[in-house]
Amino acid sequence: MKLHYGKHHQTYVDKLNTALADFPELSALSIEELLKNLEAVPEEVRQAVRNFGGGFYNHNFFFDIIGPKVDNLVPTGGLMEVLEKSFGSFDNFKKEFTDKTVTVFGSGWGWLVKNSDGQLAIVTSANQDCPLSAGSKPLLACDVWEHAYYLKYQNRRVEFVEAFFQVIDWNRVEEIYNT
């Protein structure tokens, strides 16, 4: 994780800042505002915001919802209720999330999102695309770019996603869900 955070994540930060250097009006916006309104970003810098801004946001989100010591390996309270209602059971959710996430072609992300209609969905995104740009609220994210897992898991993406479920901070995910 040190390499993941200190090198890969930092590259997104640096390249986003460079891309926005000539656009002070964009620099004044939050990353969420930029990604939610990507079509309003000038075309000459839009792809950089999509790639580097998405990389910055996605990684910040990913690092925010994991931790080395988690209090509970499954959600509790309202989040557990809505997961069970949406997917039938937590085990069904976990299986569907894993199945979709491990089949991302190339590099990308697996997400649990709340759609604009309030319904939960499991979606994937390529590269550094972000659900915010599609009008969804991210609740959970799993990075399946090779840099996230290859040093420890090599080509065993399924094992990485299984291990991911051991470090999810479900209390933080519930906080995000409730805001």
Helix content: 55-70%
> Can you give the mean pLDDT?
90
Structural class: mainly alpha
Give the radius of gyration: 16 Å
Strand arrangement in the largest pleated sheet: 2-1-3
Count up the helices: 9
Please give the alpha-carbon distance between the first and last residues.
27 Å
- Broad CATH class of the largest domain: Alpha Beta
* CATH architecture title of the largest domain: 3-Layer(bab) Sandwich
Describe the sheet with the most strands.
3 strands, antiparallel
CATH fold-type name of the largest domain: minor pseudopilin epsh fold
Tell me the total number of β-strands: 3
Task: Give a quick set of tags describing it.
single chain; 179 residues; mainly alpha; Helix Hairpins; 3-stranded antiparallel sheet; 56% helix; globular
SSE arrangement:
Elements: H1 2-20, H2 24-27, H3 31-36, H4 43-64, H5 77-87, H6 90-102, E1 108-114, E2 120-126, E3 137-143, H7 146-153, H8 157-164, H9 170-178
Antiparallel strand pairs: 1-2, 1-3
